[in-house]
C-alpha cells in the first residue's frame, strides 16, 4: 500500500531561522506528490505539485523539492504567518500526518 | 466564491442520531472526495466519486456511512446511528481530470461532535 511519512512532527523556529520539512514516500508508481498548508480549524490549502525527481517549485518563502524517495519543503526566513501544519500527500488519497510549524517572533 | 463549500460548518448531535453533510465542489470539477480528520492526524480517505459514480470506498466507511452524488454535482455524506468515535472534521475536496495526479482543492470542513 502507498504510504507517506512526515518528519518532524513539530518544529519551532525563530523568525528568520530557515529549515526544512521532510516527506518520505513509498508508492508503486509516483504520479505526483502534493504539499498542502492547513491552518487550525480549516481545510488544507493546496501549495505545490511535484511530478518527477529533480523538480523544484517555489512560492514566496517556500520551496518544494523531490527525489526518488522523498520530498522536502524548505522554508527560508520564515515569518510568524507561516505557522501552520504542512501536509504532503501522494495520489489519490494518501496523506502524511503533517508537520506542525510554529514561527516565534 | 468559486471554491469548495460545505454545510453545515459545525454539527453537534447526540449518540444514535443521524446526520447529513453537504459538499458543493468547484463547478467544473468531475471528481469529489470525502475525508475524515481527527486532531493531530492527516486526512483519512473515506470515498470518492467521478461524476455521479462512486468509484472507491475505504474500509473506514462502515455500513453506517453512505455517500451520494446524484447528478454529478453536489454530494452528501450521511452517518446513521452516530457514535462518539465519529467525532471528527469531515472534509470534502474536488479535482478536475481523469488521472490520479491532479491536485485536490478542499472545502472548509464540517466539524462533527457526538455527545
Task: Describe what this molecule looks like in 3D.
The complex is a heterodimer of chains A (105) and B (115). By secondary structure, chain A is mostly beta strands. Chain A contains no helices and eleven strands. Chain A is globular and about 40 Å long. The relative contact order of chain A is 0.33. The model of chain A has no long low-confidence stretch (mean pLDDT 94). By secondary structure, chain B is mainly beta. Chain B contains no helices and eleven strands. Chain B has strands at 5-7, 10-13, 19-24, 31-37, 44-50, 53-57, 65-68, 75-79, 88-95, 105-106, 110-114. In chain B, the strands form two sheets. In chain B, strands 2, 4, 5, 6, 9, 10 and 11 form a seven-stranded mixed sheet that branches. In chain B, strands 1-3-8-7 form a four-stranded antiparallel sheet, with no helix packed on it. In chain B, a hairpin with a 6-residue loop joins β4 (31-37) and β5. Chain B is globular. The N and C termini of chain B lie far apart (33 Å). Chain A binds chain B through residues 4, 31-32, 34, 36, 41-46, 49, 51, 87, 89, 91-98, and chain B through 4, 33, 35, 40-45, 48, 58, 91, 93, 99-109, 111.
Amino acid at each position: 500500500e502507498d504510504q507517506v511519512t512526515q518528519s518532524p512532527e513539530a518544529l519551532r523556529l525563530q523568525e528568520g531561522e530557515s529549515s526544512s520539512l521532510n516527506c518520505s514516500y513509498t508508492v508503486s508508481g509516483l504520479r505526483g506528490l502534493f504539499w498542502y498548508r492547513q491552518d487550525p480549524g480549516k481545510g488544507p490549502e493546496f501549495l505545490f505539485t511535484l511530478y518527477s525527481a529533480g523538480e523544484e517549485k517555489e512560492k514566496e518563502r517556500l520551496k518544494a523539492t523531490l527525489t526518488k524517495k522523498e520530498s522536502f519543503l524548505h522554508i527560508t526566513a520564515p515569518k510568524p504567518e507561516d505557522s501552520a501544519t504542512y501536509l504532503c500527500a501522494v495520489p489519490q488519497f494518501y496523506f502524511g500526518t503533517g508537520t506542525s510549524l510554529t514561527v516565534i517572533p | 466564491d468559486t471554491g469548495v463549500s460545505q454545510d453545515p460548518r459545525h454539527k453537534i448531535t447526540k449518540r444514535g442520531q443521524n446526520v447529513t453533510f453537504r459538499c458543493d465542489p468547484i463547478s467544473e470539477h468531475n471528481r469529489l472526495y470525502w475525508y475524515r480528520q481527527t486532531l493531530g492526524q492527516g486526512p483519512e480517505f473515506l470515498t470518492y466519486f467521478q461524476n455521479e459514480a462512486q468509484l472507491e470506498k475505504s474500509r473506514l466507511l462502515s455500513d453506517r456511512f453512505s455517500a451520494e452524488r446524484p447528478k454529478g454535482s453536489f454530494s452528501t455524506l450521511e452517518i446513521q446511528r452516530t457514535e462518539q468515535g465519529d467525532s471528527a472534521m469531515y472534509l470534502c475536496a474536488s479535482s478536475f481530470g481523469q488521472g490520479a495526479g491532479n491536485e485536490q482543492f478542499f472545502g472548509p470542513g464540517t466539524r462533527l461532535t457526538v455527545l
